[in-house]
Amino acid sequence: MAAEVRKGEVTMKGNPIDLVGPKLKPGDKAPDFQVVNDGLGTVALKDTGDKTKLFSVVPSLDTPVCSIQTKKFAESINELGDKVAAYTISLDLPFAMKRFCADNNIKNLTNLSDVHNHSFGEHYGVLIQGLPIPLLARAIFVVDGSNTIKHVEIVPEIASEPNYDAALAAIKATV
What we know:
Strand order of the largest sheet: 7-6-5-9-10
Number of strands: 10
Radius of gyration: 15 Å
CATH topology: Glutaredoxin
CATH class: Alpha Beta
Shape: globular
């Protein structure tokens, strides 16, 4: 069965971009996925435990807005300690993600690369279609301990930052 394609769902520098997969909403069950951690092990939804989860999805950590987003979430969730499991998900290779976090002294976000089979992008509806290389759209998903989605933001313009306050409010309401 072919995955759903949502035409012109977001823009990249003003140009319409198509996304592959469903448009998830709060109340939906979080879909499973298979991604790769920086030790080259595979990680599925069940491996993320029963804490509140932040999935911060970025096109590439090597771009300015993605870098800002990752640093802001690392700083913002610090006060929550171990009440939340925070993940940065992109199609960057695990080695590049690990280097980025080491270079920026980020220790409270776990990097997950969707490069293995794009299952996070397809199942969460953020895989960009039509570019010369696969990328994920900028998005935020907050998922509670029972794997119910509590907050979704697919940023309408990929070059813009997400609404950090809304995501953090959803996390704090869920932990």
